[in-house]
Specification:
Layout: H1 3-11, E1 17-21, E2 26-29, H2 31-37, H3 46-49, H4 53-65, E3 69-76, E4 81-91, E5 101-108, H5 110-145, H6 152-184, E6 192-194, H7 196-213, E7 217-221, E8 229-231, H8 233-250, E9 254-265, E10 270-279, H9 301-306, H10 313-323, E11 327-332, E12 338-345
Parallel strand pairs: 7-9
Antiparallel strand pairs: 1-2, 1-5, 3-4, 4-5, 6-8, 9-10, 10-12, 11-12
Helix pairs in contact: 5-6, 6-10, 7-8, 8-10
The structure holds adenosine-5'-triphosphate and magnesium ion.
Length: 346
């Protein structure tokens, strides 16, 4: 086979691929492999490029005994760590003195690894979140059976705490189910016509007892004319409830909700509605902002747990807004409150 034909075959492989012959040098390298291995490595000894012991050993062994092999190649593309499965196969009658060569193909499995890691993290987080209230419940049951058996005052107090812990677990399971539902519907476009002004006012009405109990003033600003938008009314209600609830829980003594419309919103490059939830609380350190909508991520975990938060609220918000092809913007500085902006295309 001529080198041109070999190059043609390698160029047709849609993954990084190289050929190493009995001289232990690269005799052909496709463009994807050049990008992965850092430049044109044709003619170089393989061990100067493939330095990871598992890969180098696999190449040596495959050249020697011609049996197929697999190895893992770890790299970094500048933005993140990447993982490749390396497949080695012997190709007869090519290379120096037609002594055969080893075809090395790299398969990028980074995304698969990341998904697996996310699944493990998620299970670990859920277990951890459930275990804490469960441990408390078991502890109180033991106390009620033993030392506090005949102490009716203690019993009432403990039962109250147990009720709190049990409802925390209940909320967590409810949020998980809700997240699941929202995620499974994410590709289905909502169809209903929604009047945001009336939804916002009913959200604030529902939350007004909570606000009152926390000494928080709620304010709603809506324009005179409110065009309808296409959306899922229940889900949008959930978005506003989560955001306003957060502002009441973590904000200061005043929460302002402002609705506005524009014919061309720069964020979505289309006519859109904007809902802003603005509080005057301690704010959020900007280091937390990029990760705030991750499941179970809390900026101030002590405060969130103390307030019965599960850390899933903003993850649900994010998914609902994605389904509406909208955007969520969070602006905050420590000591200056936080502003959550929902932009929904009309
Ligand atoms: N207005 C706000 N001011 C300050 N911190 C906020 C504000 N809104 C959210 N946060 C921070 O973001 C974190 C994530 O919010 P999220 O709504 O996802 O979870 P949560 O409120 O803890 O739990 P849940 O909403 O599930 O009950 C909170 O724990 C809190 O630390
Ligand atoms: Mg919340």
């Amino acid at each position: 086979m001529t080198p041109e034909i070999i190059d043609g075959f390698l160029a047709a492989i849609p993954h990084p691929a190289v050929l190493v012959d009995q001289t232990e040098r690269f005799i052909a390298v496709n463009a994807e492999a050049c990008a992965l291995l850092g430049g044109d490595v044709k003619g170089r000894h393989f061990a100067t490029i493939l330095r990871q012991p598992s890969v180098a050993t696999a190449v040596e062994n495959c050249l020697r005994d011609r049996a197929p092999r697999k190895a893992r190649h770890l790299s970094n593309d500048g933005a993140q760590d990447t993982t490749f499965t390396v497949n080695l196969r012997y190709v007869p009658q090519v290379g120096a003195v037609n002594g055969g060569a080893v075809l090395i193909c790299f398969e990028d499995i980074t995304e698969r690894e990341q998904a697996a890691q996310m699944r493990r993290d998620f299970v670990a987080n859920v277990s951890h979140e459930l275990r804490t209230p469960l441990t408390a419940l078991i502890g109180f049951i033991e106390t009620l059976r033993g030392p506090a058996r005949d102490d009716s005052a203690a019993r009432d107090r403990f039962l109250e705490i147990m009720e709190g812990e049990a409802s925390r677990m209940n909320r967590l399971v409810g949020d998980l189910l809700s997240l699941n539902r929202v995620e499974s519907e994410e590709r289905v476009r909502p169809k209903a016509q929604v009047d945001l002004a009336s939804h916002l006012s009913s959200t604030l009405k529902t939350l007004s007892p909570v606000a009152k109990a926390g000494g928080v003033d709620l304010e709603l600003e809506t324009p005179e004319i409110c065009p309808l938008i296409t959306g899922d009314p229940d889900q949008l209600q959930q978005v506003f409830t989560n955001l306003v609830e957060n502002a009441i829980k973590y904000g200061g003594d005043r929460v302002r909700v402002a609705l506005s419309f524009s014919d061309r919103d720069p964020a979505v490059r289309a006519p859109a509605a904007r809902v802003q939830v603005i509080d005057n609380g301690p704010g959020i350190d900007p280091v937390h902002l990029p990760r705030l909508t991750e499941r179970f991520y809390r900026a101030d975990s002590h405060r969130s747990r103390e307030k019965g938060g599960t850390g899933l609220g903003l993850a649900i918000v994010k998914h609902i807004i994605n389904r509406h092809r909208g955007r969520l913007r969070v602006e905050s500085e420590l000591g200056r409150g936080a502003t959550f902006t929902v932009i929904l295309p009309r």
